[in-house]
Design a protein that fits this description.
Elements lengths: L12 H18 L12 H8 L3 H12 L27 H9 L6 E4 L4 H9 L5 E5 L5 H8 L6 E6 L1 H4 L7 H6 L6 E5 L10 E2 H4 L15 E5 L1 E2 L12 E5 L10 E2 H9 L6 E5 L4 E2 L9 E3 L4 E5 L15 H6 L2 E3 L4 E7 L21 H4 L2 E4 L4 E5 L5 H9 L18 E7 L9 H16 L6 E5 L4 H10 L5 E5 L6 H12 L2 E4 L2 E4 L12 E7 L5 H14 L5 E8 L7 H13 L5 E8 L2 E2 L2
Parallel strand pairs: 1-2, 2-3, 3-4, 4-6, 5-7, 6-8, 8-10, 9-11, 10-13, 12-14, 13-15, 15-18, 16-19, 19-20, 20-23, 23-24, 24-25
Antiparallel strand pairs: 16-17, 17-18, 21-22, 25-26
Helix pairs in contact: 14-15, 15-16, 16-17
């Protein structure tokens, strides 16, 4: 490790006093004045710490500052850069000399109500790359003037909605000069009432539409309220593109769909694409047969309003579905689709995503899924690593409380939710549940699903349709959330048993039909509603499945709401006994009572 050369002390006493006063003022502003500040050690005590080499001290200071050279700061929100580490400057002269001599500690700079801190950090950061966050529009012009001499060092520039407000054009000089080291640009002009919303980025900063090489190193671009023309050179080489409310203010300024595809095609290196209420194109015809491949895309996040093209368009589909149908994504891409739907609008998964595995490979690759009630699901595909393969073979993924989980590797998936922004309930909740179940089954009927977790609410017919669509399931879990009723439970159990003639004298088997999901080995009912015939219904279900050729369950896992009142323990023991009587039909019966495990 090479030795670190310390900076010299100030030449004159007056310069030293001026710097001390400046830092003291900054310290009072950015550090809690009531915090405990250690007294400077005396000469005898300081001798030990003086023997530590500067490289070791740098590592200590970096831990305190949480701004190591390889650290990726949290850039997309208003979290401030940590400043508590500045207290090391007051410990002793040696520590302060070291802290001031490490430029990397001063490169992450928040600029708020004054620019003195920016001035101090620009000096002490030396030639280190700069991460600048601007929070206040009143200091934007001053900050831009100071940064103009350091444009070659700016690595990331974040301008929040308050700073952008009405003064974003103050940064025009930085854009005109160019920032050759800029890797990340975040501009938020979505603040209500700002005149910048719906403006083109190039118009705000008076740049030519064909401007080249102003940000040759740019890899991450986030725009809120602003938009880019499709020919912008900023798009080339991007790895992250995030657009929020990023569309022209007028319909006439919207791109054609072909122009939008041109913009995406200019970004073959994209790894993350986020379009939240940002589909800045119009659909004019339905004969666009062009597709754009994004082979490196790892994450696609879409928030799409339920609009069906434009008034003059013959295309009867949402822009979200239309866009996805013209993309070719990798199997490992993780996709999230969020669609607010008004109460009177028809809810449908198929309105927002195309039922086409060529566009969405996860439709034929998913092996586990969660259907979270009406109009929300999440599916994923298996991870090929050895650990996940072992967990898969042991059926441990969905066991609660085992503490052993799969790895965090990117394996691809699709999450989708349709919500009502006003949170009004539908007139027929069971009908909504059944409709969502049928569309889910239609989407993933070709997928080799092995695990499925679903929520209560569908009817027996809805559950039955789902079970008949995924005959290869080996793990099935019902989440009752503590709100399921006796009817909800019976609908699930009856559908699991297969076609039966249920009457007052019990169930009669229809031996001409096969059991749904004959390979089912693990069944969990979580936060189940207890009713008097639950154990009897489960027994009838298991006998029916056996008679129809289904294999024996390896485990039946039931989590019940604990009984209330003075007889709670007696009632719980009685319920447990009834369920454990099913042991002749199941290899293992596991019974729990809401956070209390029964041994």
């Amino acid at each position: 490790m090479s030795a670190h050369v310390l900076p010299p002390f100030p030449v004159t006493v007056q310069e030293s006093l001026d710097e001390e006063e400046t830092f003291a003022a900054m310290f009072e502003k950015y550090i809690d004045a009531d915090a405990d500040i250690p007294e400077p050690p005396d000469a005898a005590t300081a001798r030990g710490i003086d023997t530590l080499p500067p490289e070791v001290m740098l590592m200590i200071f970096q831990v305190l500052a949480a701004a190591t050279p390889g650290n990726v700061l949290v850039r997309w929100d208003h979290e401030r850069v940590p400043r508590e580490w500045l207290v090391v400057n007051l410990v002793c002269r040696y520590w302060r000399r070291l802290a001031c001599g490490f430029p990397v500690l001063w490169r992450a700079i928040d600029v708020e109500g004054c620019v003195e801190w920016l001035q101090l950090c620009l000096v002490r950061s030396g030639s280190a790359p700069l991460d600048i966050r601007l929070y206040n529009h009143t200091t934007l012009f001053q900050a831009a003037a100071l940064l103009l001499k350091h444009t070659e060092r700016i690595r990331s520039l974040i301008v929040t909605d308050d700073a952008a407000a009405n003064s974003l054009h103050a940064l025009g000089s930085l854009f005109m000069v160019g920032m050759p080291a800029l890797e990340e640009l975040y501009l938020d002009a979505c603040r209500p009432g700002t005149p910048l919303a719906g403006k083109c980025l190039y118009d705000v900063f008076l740049l030519g539409r064909t401007s080249e090489n102003i940000f040759p190193s740019l890899r991450t671009l986030h725009l809120s309220g602003l938009y880019l023309p499709p020919t912008a050179s900023l798009l080339r080489g991007l790895r992250v593109l995030e657009l929020v409310e990023s569309h022209p203010g007028s319909f006439a300024s919207q791109l054609t769909f072909e122009e939008f595809l041109d913009a995406l095609e200019a970004c073959p290196t994209l790894e993350k694409l986020k379009l939240w209420s940002s589909f800045p194109f119009r659909i004019e015809r339905d004969n666009v047969d062009r597709v754009v491949a994004l082979p490196n895309l790892r994450l696609l996040s879409l928030l799409c309003p339920s609009d069906h093209g434009n008034a003059n368009s013959a295309v009867k589909t949402t822009r979200c579905s239309y866009l996805l149908s013209h993309l070719r994504l990798a199997e490992s891409t993780a996709i999230t689709v969020f669609a607010p739907v008004r109460l009177r609008e028809r809810k449908s998964f198929l309105d927002h995503i195309p039922n086409n595995p060529a566009c969405l490979p996860i439709l034929r690759a998913a092996n586990q899924a969660i259907l979270k009630g009406a109009w929300e699901f999440a599916v994923s595909m298996p991870c090929p690593c050895a650990q996940c393969s072992r967990l898969d073979s042991e059926l441990l993924h969905m066991h609660p409380g085992d503490g052993e989980t799969a790895c965090d590797k990117d394996t691809g998936g699709l999450s989708m939710i349709l919500v009502n922004p006003c949170r009004c309930s539908a007139d027929d909740s069971v009908g909504e549940e059944d409709a969502a179940v049928r569309e889910f089954a239609e989407l993933f009927v070709a997928a080799p699903l092995r695990r499925l977790e679903l929520f209560y609410g569908a009817s027996q017919v809805g559950f039955g349709h789902l079970f008949s669509s995924f005959r290869g399931l080996s793990v099935l879990a019902l989440e009752c959330c503590g709100y399921a009723t006796r009817d909800n439970m019976r609908d699930f159990v009856y559908a699991l048993a297969g076609p039966l003639a249920w009457g007052s004298d019990g169930a009669r088997l229809d031996e001409n039909d096969t059991a749904p999901m004959p390979q089912l080995r693990w069944l969990c009912v979580h936060q189940a509603c207890w009713y008097g015939e639950l154990a009897q219904d489960l027994e009838t279900c298991l006998r029916s499945r056996k008679a129809k050729g289904a294999g024996k369950l390896q485990e039946l896992h039931v989590v019940l709401k604990s009984a209330k009142g003075t007889k709670r323990r007696k009632l719980n023991n009685m319920r447990e006994t009834k369920l454990r009587a099913l042991a002749s039909l199941v290899e293992t019966v596991n019974v729990e009572f809401m956070n209390t495990r029964v041994v």
